[in-house]
Amino acid sequence: MKKMKTMTEGVIWKEILFFAIPLILGNLFQQLYNTVDSIIVGNYVGSNALAAVGSSGAIINLLIGFCIGASTGAGVVISQFYGAKNTEGVRKAVHTTMAIALVAGVLLTVIGITVTPSMLRLMGTPDKVFEQSVIYLQVYFGGSLFSVVYNMSAGILNAVGNSRRSLVYLMIAAISNIFLDLIMVVGLKLGIVGAALATDISQLISCIFIWGFLIRSEDVYKLKIKEIRCYDHLLSKIIRIGIPTGIQNIVISLSNLIVQASVNSFGATVMAGFAAYIKIDGFNILPVLSISMAATTFAGQNIGAGKADRVRKGMYISTAMGAGYSVITGIVLLIFAPQVIGVFTTNHKVVEYGVYIMKYFCPFYWMLGILHVLGGTIRGTGKTMQAMIVFLVSLCGFRVMWIAGTMAWAKSLGHVMMCYPTSWLLGMLLMLLYVWKGNWMVLRTEKI
User: Fold this and answer.
1) Mean pLDDT, the chain, whole residue set
2) Residues above pLDDT 70, as percent of the chain
3) I need a surface site. Which of 134, 158, 183, 301 has the fewest CB within 10 A?
4) By C-alpha distance, which of 278, 306, 289, 279 is closest to 374?
5) CB-CB contact of 4 with 159 (8 Å)
6) Are 382 and 80 spatial neighbours (Cβ–Cβ below 8 Å)?
7) Mapping DSSP to helix (H, G, I), strand (E, B) and coil, where does residue 226 land?
8) Which has the closest alpha carbon to 56: 135, 150, 133, 112?
9) Please, what's the b/e burial string for 360-388 (b: 16 or more CB within 10 A of its CB; e: otherwise)?
10) How crowded is residue 149: how many other Cβ atoms within 10 Å of its Cβ?
11) Phi, psi angle pair for 9, to nearest 5°
């Protein structure tokens, strides 16, 4: 028990920042998976292949969103047990989490391979990129078990405050992905199949490393293969907390599919420009999501320890971090917009569309920063349903209505892109209102 170092003591901003930095670096390396695919495919295979890889991102996010929700539920439960120094609760929650990961990974593989063609048709994917999109996605989902197991395992480490270890394994996997992409796409000329295979193998590498660490560990979160199963009421507890986040991710991804379908209607060149910037957007938003994850773990551990005032102060500090970062990066991206998009393609028309799209994202990232970090704190207290409602109303319901109106009355790329900053504004205002008025501070942790 004395060896359990929690985030319930010490200077708050240091605890959050030093925990978030490895998360930020780790998530940036993880984003390299698809981004390296896009850079190499765009430069060595062609703009149609880049469009195929880019349009696949929305479907990938849709199907893994539910598993991320389960990971969130597990992380909240484990962090609250850890903050309360409940070692038996941590042990049972860890092994229940891994049981969920294995089952979810197998299901995701089967579902992903099966529904890929139908989803791409529903999105209105142009015929000249349809076949390549199907191939890329089906090969990608062939390795989704490794991705799910790794992310759930990393969620365990993050919940107990050990974000540095997963960073090391992600760095190894990301570097491996770069070399494998060069070998398979540039050297062996396997095209987008090689890009997807490189990602699968890299995810397998990260999975092997993190499981090896958990099995060898002598800490309270040590993994024992023979103990992997669902314990007591923890399955229902994790699902009850995780399902709202999973539903949130799925429905928001569905709204992004609608946006992607609208973009597809403007042709392959616009698709490629949008795909190129969405990769940059992924890099830019990941640090905000990392700070949000840090806020979730910080709130969970301190709720478990019964320290409400510390949770509230942590929320203010982490929100300032997220908003400040978003302002700075938005300015930098706007200044170097042509050079940034030019990394993905030499097609001047694609670069032009990518830069145009950036103008609808970069000046408004700070609103998304506030929304996500506040949401992370709320989730850490176990109030995932309330956070889900705010995200669904703003990033899904409002966005879908905006797209429907835009495509019916004034079909233009600019009007479609405006759905992003307007939905972020609505979400931020709703989340601020809930934090101000809502009953979200609950000092309660599950007993074992």
Assistant:
1) 85
2) 91
3) 183
4) 289
5) no
6) yes
7) helix
8) 133
9) bbbebbbbbbbbbbbbbbbbbbbbbbbbb
10) 23
11) -135, 165
Q: Does residue 70 or residue 343 have the better pLDDT? A: 343
| Cβ neighbours for 241, distance < 8 A, ≥ 6 positions apart | 72, 73, 76, 77, 382, 384
Name the residue with higher pLDDT: 294 or 409: 294
Torsion of the alpha carbons at 252, 255, 256 and 258, rounded to the nearest 10: 170
Distance in angstroms (rounded) separating the CA atoms of residues 102 and 337? 41
Q: Kindly tell me the sign of the dihedral angle through the C-alpha atoms of 77, 83, 87, 88.
A: negative
What global pTM score does this model have?
0.76
- Which of 385, 369, 392 lies closest to 442 in space, CA to CA? 385
**For residue 198, what are its two tokens?**
């490189």
Q: Could you give the angle at the alpha carbon of 296 between the alpha carbons of 314 and 20, nearest 5°?
A: 75
Tens of pLDDT, residue by residue over 212-265, are: 999 999 888 999 999 999 887 888 888 888 878 777 777 777 777 778 788 888
Residue (of 107, 97, 113, 193) closest to 150 by Cα position: 97
First-to-final CA distance of the chain:
16
> For the chain, give me the number of helices (H) and strands (E)?
17, 0
Contact 48, 129 (CB under 8 A): yes
Please give the full DSSP string across 206-221, using - where no structure is assigned: HHHHHHHHHHH--STT
Radius of gyration of the chain (CA): 21
Q: What is the pLDDT of residues 375-390, one digit of tens each?
A: 999 988 888 888 889 9
Question: What is the per-residue pLDDT for 394?
Answer: 92
Token pair belonging to 23 = 């998360």
Alpha helices for 381-445 (secondary structure H) = 384-391, 399-409, 413-417, 419-437
Rounded CA separation 368/365 (Å): 5
Length, in residues, of the chain: 448
Q: Which helix (H) or strand (E) holds 290?
A: helix 268-304
Q: Which residue has the tokens 């365990």?
A: 156
Long-range contacts of 403-412 (CB under 8 A, 24+ apart): 403/255, 403/258, 403/259, 403/262, 406/262, 407/262, 407/265, 411/265
Neighbouring C-alpha atoms within 13 Å toward the C-beta of 101: 27
